[in-house]
Each structure stands twice: as C-alpha cells, then as structure tokens.
Design brief:
24% strand, six-stranded parallel beta sheet, 5 helices, two-stranded antiparallel ribbon, homodimer, alpha/beta
Chain lengths: 171, 171
C-alpha cells in the first residue's frame, strides 16, 4: 500500500451546494488510503475542514484546486479510473488495477461526456444510482482489500476501539 | 440474501441541513441491499426523492418516519448494529452478524450516548472520522459480501454496463 499514490479528482463541485458532499469525499479519501483530493473549483472551506481533521487526527491528506480538469486528466501519469454507474460493475473487475500512481475520478449527476474516453477504466460500484461518497469508499475498500482501515494515523488524538461507548486518547 | 431484511435508521436528521446527506443514505441503502430507511424526523423530500428513483429504476425501497427512536430501537426484534468510529474496527468483526432482521444505525456527528448500550454491535468502518454515507455503504458491502451489487432491479430503465460511455435501456 505504501508505494501506491492515489489521487481523487472530484468533478463538478458547485460552491453553493456541494461543500458538505465534497467534504465527505475528502474525508473518505483520507480515511480510505488516498493521498489527495483535487477539486475543479476553488472552495477553501473544504480544504480548511480537512486541514483541521489532519491536525487533530493525523496524516497529511491534501486538498488542492485546479482550473482545467481536461489538462489535469490528460496529463496524469498513471492509471485513470472513473467511477460511474454506467461502467463495468466492480464485481466484474479484476483487481489489482494500478500499481503506482492512480487517479480516481468521481463526479456528480452530470459529468462531461469526454471523460469516459479519457480514462483506463469506467467502473460502476453497482449500476444503480446512489452516491459519489459511497462509490469512492467502496471502490477504495476493494482496491486496498480492506487494509486501508487498519492504517495508523499519528495525530493529537486517537480512538481506542470499544464494544460500548467512546474512548479517545489525546497526546 | 433474500431472507434477510435490513432496516437503516438514520439518527439526528436536521431538516435545514441534511436533506442531501440523508438522501444519499437512502440511495445507498437501496442500492446496497437494505429494504428501508427510517428517519427520526419527518422530511418528505427524502421520501419523494427515493420514490422517484424507485419508479424509474425499480425496487421497493421505503422511507418512513418515526417520532421516538428510543422505543423504535428498544422494540426492534433482530440484530442491532450501530456504525460509529468509536466501535470495533470492521476488519476485526466476524461476519455473518445477523440472520434475519437487521437494524443498521447511522448517526451524524453527535448521537445520543445511550445508543451504544442499546445495540448488539458498535462497529467502526475504520476509526477515523469520515462519512455516515460511506460507512453505511462499506458496511453493507462487507455484510452482503459484495453480492448486493449484482442484484437486479426491475424498473422503467436499466443500465447496460459499458467500458466507455453510457447505455440505458428503457422499457
């Protein structure tokens, strides 16, 4: 898992509507083993939210902004995966898919049609409509074979898993 | 999978803020093999959204509202699972967990502390903060061993999975 670098690109972020959904995407990226989230529009609220989580819970997950998704995707050096309900069902996909740099693209309801032809794989986390947050999480969970959830983060605080109740240790 | 009935309870839905997140939760429940979503406050927008998805894409996923989560959870006849980042890491949980009626509880940032003691399992989809939408999806994907994503829905339209582009058949 260490050699792999996973970048998540979230397309179509709308400043007025998508702060929470994009923040969930960023948090999922961080918790499920990706290294960074790239947004195609500037929304520093998403970045600030993640920076705060990093500070408290550890890790160096990064949020950054680009202006032109087309040149970003076109120029990406690695395996490009687009998550879409129209793609091949993830149950029919043979893992592992990529070895070093991996780009995982999630969109909203409408993505630019060109994207389908610009990637190596169009993968459906099921062929039913649901959620880009869920699609990203399940994809990364399958991609890393669950090991991403055992990863340790070094932050100011840490959960000690409990059968009942909450236990958080602060350093 | 057919004998199992999975109900999702979403606690702490706030009318002003949570329509989209709760709608994502409902869509994930539907796409990942649950039968219904129960909300602890009335928000017919969530129900309307899902009814429309059912009509187009099939299935009988139901959204309903309750007034008292405590009596609902207390009276639930089956296996009760609370998804929380403070629980036992899902990687350390032995599946299968429940055989017939299963209740999966997801909350937001703050859940009533009593809930931890009212359930059979407090399970963490990783012990890092992320998203109740993601937690539900990954939990159900593990619970159903991925088979939920092969399920067929009979609706007015259906995706024919493609390597490139979109193909939807309408009936």
């Amino acid at each position: 898992m260490n050699k792999l670098k996973v970048t998540v690109l979230r397309l179509g972020h709308r400043f007025e509507r998508d702060k929470r959904i994009s923040t969930h995407i960023a948090l999922v990226g961080r918790a499920f083993g990706a290294q960074e989230l790239v947004l195609d529009s500037r929304d520093s609220r998403v970045k600030e939210g993640i920076d705060e989580v990093n500070e408290n819970w550890g890790g160096g997950f990064r949020v950054r902004f680009i202006e032109n998704w087309k040149s970003f995707v076109g120029g990406f050096d690695g395996t490009k995966i687009h998550l879409t309900m129209y793609g091949i069902n993830i149950n029919d996909v043979k893992f592992p898919l990529g070895r070093e740099n991996v780009l995982v693209i999630v969109g909203g309801k409408k993505v630019p049609p060109q994207i389908y032809g610009m990637v190596d794989y169009n993968i459906a986390v099921g062929n039913q409509p649901h959620s880009e947050v869920a699609a990203l999480a399940v994809f990364l969970d399958r991609f890393f074979e669950g090991k991403e959830l055992d990863r340790e983060f070094e932050g100011k605080q840490r959960v000690i898993p409990q059968r009942r109740g909450k236990k958080v240790v602060r350093y």
